[in-house]
């Protein structure tokens, strides 16, 4: 009877462990899916120039000021016979030296050039570099997190490393969003000075796209932390399991007198 009872207990324990392992795997896979979505949103936000958008009526164009790319497109109501998808989009890189020289010339001739005030916003300022640096670090960390997350269901060490990398991913992405948000609301960054009037820049879709990715990465962090904690708890239980097996066993042949 003792042997049958022990086998029943062992079977129950095995089934419980299987259910726990399956639940942990589902949580990790869900976290990986969220992290992939967050990575796509963050990468799309960084690549887009629509971080700050301003409609300058005297120039008859809409300006998109990004972190590393600036684009200009003509206003839609001025092009009656042209399709929206065929509108020309002129873009320049903030780190392009030839474009930088033109910007410097416009700024020096600010009294005679109406585009000089707007040209200042095409410069590669320090806060652009810090924001872009944090966001690129977040993307790189997210990529490494995915590699560790694939191995996380098989090893508690990888699960812990995965949770740590996701935490750094969410932290660096949040820092990038915060730097841009506060810098974009400064007076010298928020308003564009034209020849006739002053125009206010609005936060573009690229920022909200990246913030959505940051929020989803935080959700992935919560799920990764739960799975890592659960795997560590299972390992602690497995370490104490051999001590339970050291209990004395009573066999019928030793019980006879």
Q: What would you say this structure looks like, in words?
A:
The chain is α+β, with helices and mostly antiparallel strands and 257 residues long. The chain has one domain: Up-down Bundle (Butyryl-CoA Dehydrogenase, subunit A, domain 3). It is built from 8 helices and 7 strands. It has helices at residues 2-47, 97-108, 116-119, 126-151, 156-184, 187-190, 205-245, 252-255; strands at residues 52-56, 61-65, 69-74, 90-93, 191-193, 198-200, 202-203. The protein has a 5-stranded antiparallel sheet with strand order 4-3-2-1-7. Strands 5-6 form a two-stranded antiparallel sheet. A hairpin with a 4-residue loop joins β1 (52-56) and β2. The radius of gyration is 29 Å and the shape is elongated. The chain starts with a helix and ends with a helix. Residues 1-20 and 241-249 have low confidence and may be disordered.
Overall shape: it is elongated
What is the succession of H and E elements? Answer: HEEEEHHHHHEEEHH
Unreliable residue runs: 1-20, 241-249
How far apart, in Å, are the first and last alpha carbons?
19 Å
The average pLDDT is 78
Structural class: alpha+beta
Main sheet properties? 5 strands, antiparallel
Report helical residue fraction: 55-70%
């Amino acid at each position: 009877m003792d042997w049958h009872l022990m086998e029943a207990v062992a079977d129950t324990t095995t089934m419980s462990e299987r259910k726990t392992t399956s639940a942990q795997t589902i949580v990790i896979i869900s976290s990986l899916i969220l992290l992939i979505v967050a990575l796509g949103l963050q990468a799309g936000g960084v690549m887009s120039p629509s971080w700050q958008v301003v409609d300058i009526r005297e120039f008859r164009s809409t300006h998109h000021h990004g972190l590393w790319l600036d684009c200009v497109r003509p206003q839609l109501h001025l092009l009656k016979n042209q399709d929206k998808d065929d509108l020309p989009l002129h873009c320049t890189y903030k780190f392009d030296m030839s474009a930088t020289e033109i910007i410097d010339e416009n700024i020096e001739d600010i009294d005679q050039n109406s585009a000089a005030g707007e040209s200042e916003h095409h410069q590669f300022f320090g806060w652009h570099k810090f924001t872009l640096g944090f966001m690129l670090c977040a993307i790189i960390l997210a990529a490494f997190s995915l590699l560790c997350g694939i191995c996380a269901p098989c090893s508690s060490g990888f699960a812990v490393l995965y949770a740590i990398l996701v935490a750094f991913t969410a932290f660096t992405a949040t820092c990038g969003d915060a730097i841009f948000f506060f810098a974009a609301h400064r007076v010298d960054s928020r308003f564009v000075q034209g020849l006739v009037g002053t125009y206010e820049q609005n936060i573009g879709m690229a920022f909200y796209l990246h913030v959505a990715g940051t929020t989803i990465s935080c959700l992935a962090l919560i799920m990764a932390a739960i799975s890592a904690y659960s795997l560590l708890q299972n390992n602690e239980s497995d370490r104490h399991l051999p001590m339970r097996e050291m209990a004395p066993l009573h066999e019928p042949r030793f019980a006879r007198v």
